[in-house]
């Protein structure tokens, strides 16, 4: 939460230079507080695992969040029961008349397929279109980030020569944006994907900025300059054993898979994995919620549409 001080206190400018968010009393007294409405579009097949990971990452904020879980009506889930979906999830038709302060679109293990061949691509694009006037800021994860970057900015994914699998070092390229407040200049993030996006194409787009990148993994965190689209190409929400379970699954299936990089001590899968990314995940989710959602979204949530229309004029 921000520090609140008397308006025009000289320290405000100094703290702002250090990327510390300070709210003066005039603004604080005019703020109205309400729960934030957050929509999670869960595209992963093991929905219960993913929803737990995302909710854990969101839980570190002191803000009150009202969560809506969404699944694709155009896709039949093979690894989640109909009872679970009908009890805890909604479809787009059920929520399309509502407004949300923030939305999260998860990854999906389908990166080898062209976007247009994904059986729920049309439904997902409808959601992304709808979000332009019904959601204030969207956080996209892994395949979701590639899909959002492709649909909104025309940057397609590219096939990697080998699977990117492990925990990789990333460097902060611009520490000024509030999304990276408190983050180390070098941080780690798990990746598990066969595709990437072109750093050069992102840099060539005047509406996008790479905030952090890795020599091995490429772009790690990208934002649109209006902060309405945040793309995270790794999985800072992963549990300690997520990569291990994937590795063991593929080994048991007889697939050719390497030990995940920088994950086990001495690359020895008999040893417990080292968690290097938990604090990074906490900062990404809490900073996004606080600075790009809570501090910006209108108190009357229906005004999101009006605010976005005014910004686009």
UniProtKB/TrEMBL annotation:
Any one GO cellular component localisation term in the record: cytoplasm
Domain of life: Bacteria
Reactions accelerated catalytically: L-homoserine + acetyl-CoA = O-acetyl-L-homoserine + CoA
Subcellular location: Cytoplasm
EC annotation from Swiss-Prot or TrEMBL: 2.3.1.31
Site (Important for acyl-CoA specificity): residue numbering on this chain: 111
GO-annotated biological processes: L-methionine biosynthetic process from homoserine via O-succinyl-L-homoserine and cystathionine
Active-site residues from the entry: 142 (acyl-thioester intermediate), 235 (proton acceptor), 237
Protein name: Homoserine O-acetyltransferase
Native organism: Veillonella seminalis ACS-216-V-Col6b
């Amino acid at each position: 939460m921000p520090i609140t001080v008397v308006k025009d206190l000289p320290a405000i400018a100094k703290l702002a230079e250090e990327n510390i968010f300070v709210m003066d009393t005039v603004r604080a007294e005019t703020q109205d507080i309400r729960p934030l409405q957050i929509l999670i579009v869960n595209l992963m097949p093991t929905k219960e695992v993913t929803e737990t990971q995302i909710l854990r990452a969101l839980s570190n904020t002191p803000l009150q969040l009202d969560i809506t879980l969404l699944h694709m009506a155009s896709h039949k889930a093979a690894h989640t029961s109909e009872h679970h979906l009908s009890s805890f999830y909604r479809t787009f038709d059920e929520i399309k008349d509502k407004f949300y302060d923030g939305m999260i679109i998860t990854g999906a293990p389908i990166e080898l397929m062209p976007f247009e061949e994904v059986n729920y691509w049309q439904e997902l694009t409808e959601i992304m279109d709808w979000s332009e006037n019904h959601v204030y800021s969207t956080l996209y994860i892994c395949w979701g980030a590639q899909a959002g970057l492709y649909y909104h900015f025309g940057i397609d994914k590219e096939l990697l020569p080998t699977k990117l699998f492990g925990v990789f070092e990333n460097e902060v390229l611009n520490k000024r944006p509030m999304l990276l407040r408190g983050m180390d200049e070098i941080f780690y993030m798990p990746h598990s994907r066969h595709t990437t996006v072109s750093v050069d194409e992102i840099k060539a787009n005047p509406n996008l900025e790479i905030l952090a990148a890795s020599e091995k993994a490429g772009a790690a965190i990208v934002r649109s300059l209006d902060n309405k689209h945040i793309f995270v190409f790794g999985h800072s929400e992963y549990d300690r054993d997520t990569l291990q379970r994937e590795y063991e699954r593929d080994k048991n299936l007889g697939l050719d898979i390497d030990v995940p990089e920088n994950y086990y001590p001495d690359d020895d899968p008999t040893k417990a994995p080292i968690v290097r990314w938990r604090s990074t995940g906490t900062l990404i989710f809490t900073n996004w919620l606080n600075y790009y959602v809570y501090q910006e979204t209108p108190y009357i949530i229906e005004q999101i549409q009006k605010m976005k229309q005014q910004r686009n004029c």
